[in-house]
Amino acid sequence: MDHGTHIYMMNRQGQFVEGLESGTPSSGSAARLGELVDDTGPGMTEITTMQLIIRPKVSSGRRAAMQRHTKEASELKALILADLHKEPGCEHVTDFAIQRLETRENGANWTVKYLDPNQDKVCETILINIARMLQLNFDLPERGS
User: Fold this and answer.
1) How far apart are the C-alpha atoms of 47 and 10, rounded to whole Å?
2) Is the Cβ–Cβ distance between 20 and 8 less than 8 Å?
3) What residue segments make up the domains of the chain, in order of their start?
4) pLDDT-derived band of residue 109, with 50, 70 and 90 as boundaries?
């Protein structure tokens, strides 16, 4: 199976800055990452999150459907906390909930709800980005399962 790799870069405000695809030569990727980190222009200065996403591709170039696995809300929260606590300044964050969605959003049947309005917005953005990555692979079990 062929895989496509994408790197998504986000600034401290949680805005998408730029993406690099697997076809970019490594020397070009390294140079572009250096430019983005060093750039002092608006929206580009504080790259805080780089997310590597590997998705299967079918030979025609169209993405294959990924198999989604189920996890309980407590398991999803534990996965999110493990990644979130690796981020500087977010080691103490625990105040969020996994919520079931009645209607799927972006293919997911769950989302996260940040419960502390006084918490650092950077941690909130990182939390949301971690959840988005997990939503690609995991669903909550169907009710009654």
Assistant:
1) 6
2) no
3) 2-57, 69-139
4) very high
Instruction: Report the alpha-carbon angle 143-65-77, nearest 5.
Output: 45
Amino acid identity, position 11: N
DSSP 142: P
At residue 118, the 3 state secondary structure works out as coil
Task: Judge whether 129 and 17 are in contact, CB under 8 Å.
Answer: no
% of the chain beyond a pLDDT of 70: 54
User: Is 81's pLDDT higher than 80?
Assistant: yes
- Rounded to 5°, the CA angle 65-71-74 comes to 145
Q: Which residues pair with 16 in a beta bridge?
A: 10
Between the alpha carbon of residue 5 and those of residues 37, 53, 127, 129, the distances in Å are 21, 6, 22, 17
CA 52 vs. chain centroid, Å, equals 9
Instruction: Evaluate if residue 63 carries a pLDDT over 50.
Output: no
Question: What are 29's two structure tokens?
Answer: 């990727």
Closest C-alpha among 130, 137, 82 to residue 108: 137
